[in-house]
Amino acid sequence: MSTTTVSNVIHGKTGEVSPETEQRVRSYLEEVGYIPNINARNLAANHSNIIGVVIKTRENHYMHILSEPFVSEILGGIEEMIRKAGYYMMLYISDDMADILNKVAAWNTDGLLLFWMLDDDALRVYKRFRKPVVCVDTYISEETRAQFENSFVNIGLEDEAGTHEAISYLIKTGHRRIGFLSDNHEGVDLVRFRGYRRALEEAGIKYSNKDFFELCSTKGEIESSMKKLAEKAKKYEAVFCCSDVYASMLINSCERIGISVPEDLSVIGFDDTFPSRLSRPSITTIHQDIVERGRLSIELLLKMIIGEKPESDQIIMKPKLVIRESVKERK
Amino acid sequence: MSTTTVSNVIHGKTGEVSPETEQRVRSYLEEVGYIPNINARNLAANHSNIIGVVIKTRENHYMHILSEPFVSEILGGIEEMIRKAGYYMMLYISDDMADILNKVAAWNTDGLLLFWMLDDDALRVYKRFRKPVVCVDTYISEETRAQFENSFVNIGLEDEAGTHEAISYLIKTGHRRIGFLSDNHEGVDLVRFRGYRRALEEAGIKYSNKDFFELCSTKGEIESSMKKLAEKAKKYEAVFCCSDVYASMLINSCERIGISVPEDLSVIGFDDTFPSRLSRPSITTIHQDIVERGRLSIELLLKMIIGEKPESDQIIMKPKLVIRESVKERK
DNA sequence: TTGAAAGCGCTAACAA
DNA sequence: TTGTTAGCGCTTTCAA
Predict the structure, then answer these.
(1) How many structural domains comprise chain A?
(2) Are A167 and A199 in contact (CB under 8 A)?
């Protein structure tokens, strides 16, 4: 009963082992309560069965990134998929690229899922890592993508079109003074902003910088910031919010100062996360299938890990408008 | 420049290395961009720098456990603490004890954080693991605790007293027909139920089995189940809910069938998670410092990992009532 | 202060 | 079909 034989039955390579031996080995394993040492296995096999999930955060955000409904929902899909495939998930949360790069290199996981990374940061990670990488919500140029040597897929969303649809719907239902609420002006939110601008332009509605409702989302300031924006909303007929949570918070702030939603102000959200259904009025929003997107990203990553080349290095999912109660038709 | 020397400077044992050599080693490390291989290190040193976080789930729950506000908030505190201490977090989510036991043994993490585990399941894990364990929200008998050989701390909450306070408050504000809403009847919720019963008894209010609002929280059924409970609530003056999310959902269901909160029905939640502030009316609830509890649990675990014996094997935190808008004084 | 060497538990190539 | 053996990259003991 040599190590090879034992190793073989452990890994189910029973074609190479006689049934009797296999049985013998199995009962022995059972008897001693054998548990493989994962570190040793990983070291020898040069893989880890770990998928690293990297989330780049902003410092001093008003809530921990794991509490963001979008994040917790997509992580749910991701975690489940990883677990069911027999892999382990390791979370790297950080706002520091150098830190991320080190951890990624040290652990040498089998694959990496990158959230909200900038174009060239994603590339830096890959240069260091040189194993399969899937990006979520990264706007990445074709030239950059080409440098990933087929070990890369970006899985995104039609943010521009989705926002355009939302704004067009507002315009169609009689709104003209429409604000755009966000806490930043880059990445995903920037693209959504473009969709907003395009919809306005197409309807011949002038945009002014004032129409950008810039929320300060840091810890001590978000409430007061939202309060100010609610005041400002008095002059508007509708506000598009870059997340359902912000939409929900805006509705509350408005109701508190006597602006009734949707009677006085229409509010529209994005993502169709849990809060949009929990809010009252429930929130009209742009739906995306978050859990499915999480699952799909892992599915793709897993395929690359076993050596399959992805069919395309970019998958862009389509969101769609879900009409609930927070938008009112105006004459 | 031998391996030992290099290893010594990496680990800061510079007492054993001459300054010149140290400098030489450091610049070499810098030059080649040295990154330690974590698996090799762990194998040799027989530790992992990983803290395992085990969450035992119920199958077919209406939302992924990571999306539960309580879970995501406490994980936020946990993740942050683990990261800042230079450790890594590995999540094991499962509803199967055998599975959990195997993973725990295979990975041989430095410590384990156990969520909502039953008394003897926690002990089984320890018997297998034999390293520091911290339990969160586990009701565990003194005899069981004694078997953990000082490598154990339970960090709980005064669930009974908290609920008692909530119910007493309802009674004081003029409510008598008070329901208790939960989706199970064990562990934490069972203890809360006892607090509810005690408060009723002390006020001389009779309890009937009908006063237990049992929510079916599985995927396809939660909405209809909540709807039924809202109907049932017509006969009540107040309902205590075992979570803020349920309180929020109940409020919505009630409003939809014309029961106004708090005018017709008072609703009280538990935990003081984000939804209690996001709801309208905002929810009167029992506050607990969730993030702090997460941090504290890791702090204790870390201490045990470096060999300190915990001062006590049980830390029970105190919740407190937060009065918001969902309870109305009745004459 | 430095270096040589054993060994952590496993995989996999190769030999028998 | 089974067994032997050389690493995987690191830590640590012991000798120089």
Answers:
(1) 3
(2) yes
Kindly report, residue by residue over B95-148, the tens digit of the pLDDT: 899 888 888 888 889 999 999 998 889 999 998 888 999 999 999 888 998 888
pLDDT at B318 over 90: yes
Contact A64 B72 (CB under 8 A): yes
- Residue A1's pLDDT is what? 67
Distance of C1' in D6 from CA in A45, Å: 14
d(CA A292, CA A297): 8
Q: What is the mean pLDDT of residues A152-160?
A: 96
Q: Round to a whole number and report the distance in Å from the CA of B30 to the C1' of C2.
A: 21
Q: Is A246 in the same domain as A139?
A: no
- Lay out the sheet containing B320-322: strands in order across: B212-214, B178-182, B238-241, B266-271, B284-287, B320-322
Q: Are residues B195 and B263 in the same domain?
A: yes
Answer yes or no: do A94 and B77 touch at CB < 8 A: no
Contact flag A80-B63 (C-beta cutoff 8 Å): no
Do residues A173 and A140 both lie within one domain?
no
Of the partner residues A63, A248, A280, the one whose CB lies closest to the CB of residue B255: A280
- Which pLDDT band holds residue B24 (cuts at 50, 70, 90)? confident
Separation of CA B298 and C1' C2 in angstroms? 40
What's the pLDDT band for A330 if we cut at 50, 70, 90?
very high
Same domain, A119 and A198: no
In this structure, the answer to whether residues B153 and B163 fall within a common structural domain is: no
Q: B189: which 2 tokens? A: 């919720």
Is A211 contained in some domain?
A: yes
Same domain, residue pair A136 and A220: no
Among B36, B75, B91, the residue with its CB nearest the CB of A106 is B36
Out of A42, A63, A66, closest to residue B39 by CB: A42
Does residue B13 have a pLDDT over 80? Answer: no
**Are B168 and B221 contained in the same domain?**
yes
H or E element, residue A40: helix A38-45
**Are B76 and A91 a contacting pair at CB < 8 A?**
no
What CATH number does the domain containing A176 carry? 3.40.50.2300
List the 264-283 stretch of A: residues with Cβ below 8 A of B. 274-275, 278-280
Residue B237 falls inside a structural domain? yes
Closest residue in A to B245 (Cα–Cα):
A278
In terms of Cα–Cα distance, which of A291, A270, A301, A251 is closest to B67? A291
Q: Which residue reads 């924006």 in tokens?
A: A229
Q: Is A294 on the interface with B (CB under 8 A)?
A: no
Whether the pTM exceeds 0.70: the reply is: yes
Domain presence at residue B42? no
Q: What is the DSSP letter of A218?
A: B
Size of chain A in residues: 331
Side chain identity at residue B181, one-letter code: L
Q: What is the domain range of residue B282?
A: 159-288
Q: Has residue B326 been placed in a domain?
A: no
pLDDT digits (tens, 9 = 90+) for A225-236: 999 999 999 999
**Residue spans of alpha helices (H) in B207-315:** 222-233, 244-256, 274-278, 290-305
Query: Based on the domain organization, do B66 and B148 belong to the same domain?
Result: yes
Window A:192-231, CB contacts with B under 8 Å: none
Question: Are the beta carbons of A280 and B251 separated by less than 8 Å?
Answer: yes
